[in-house]
Amino acid sequence: MDGESACGRVECLIKTTYNTTSIMIKKPSLILLYIFSIFNSCQKKSEQNKSSENVIVFKDKLGHSLSKNDLQNTTGKVNYEIMDNQNTNATADQLHKEARQLGQSGKYDLAITKLQEAIKIQPDWAYPTYDLAFTYLLKGDFESALKFYKRTDELAPKGFFTTKAALYTLEGEQSGKFPKGLYLAYLQIEWTDNKEQKLEIAKTLTDKVPDFAPAWKELSNLLNGNAERLKAIEQGLSKNPDADTAGMLKINKAILLNNVGKGEEAKNLLGNLIFSADATTATIEMAKFTLKSIS
């Protein structure tokens, strides 16, 4: 009998022997001794599990700490639609859905009209504003795209889909740091399913625009070999990346560090990211999941 099945049978055994004669109680029988030994084993196992759950896996200089129990239900997934859709006006929601269908059909002007109507009904809802920015981007109206990405960021300052990277890139385009159309070119990496094409685009972008951090992040994911990947990650981190890009670069770096036996360094990197005031919701959740996995 294993420990778990024994624990599950304690209650049944106790009920069976509850009406034992007084003689047997005064002189404990083998069955009672067996029950007590199982009970003690289960109690110790429960205490060990509880102790294991409360093990601190990270603690910083400010006293912030994370235990295994804190990370237990972390999945690393963030569904912005669910997060942002709890009190959505039904009419605004319908207009938003219609706009997305129009946008997918290439009917951008009609999509913009629907999105503007949805925003007018519910101006504090980030999703239609985000899609409005993206639709202007697809039309090549980068100024309007930047305007509404800024508005999305105001509505969801802890991050909303790719808003942080879009702002970083479009602001760079506007200031002359990056060439016009860079963000659309960068999105081609996401839009293609061919890994070789992804790698080719990422390499081209890092060669032509070496100060563009998101391209280094993508390149680090596509390269083979820890040394090459780590070099790309360090390049990205040195380019003053946006909060989302910086977070993902640090998470990828932590995974590589753990792979080469530097587990404590990896944990510290992830823990500090989780408690960083600049970290986005997505990177915090992914960092928690990664920390849970390597702990």
Automatic annotation (TrEMBL):
The keyword Magnesium does not apply. The keyword Lipoprotein does not apply. Keywords: TPR repeat. TPR repeats lie at residues 126-159. SMART domains: TPR. This is Tetratricopeptide repeat protein.
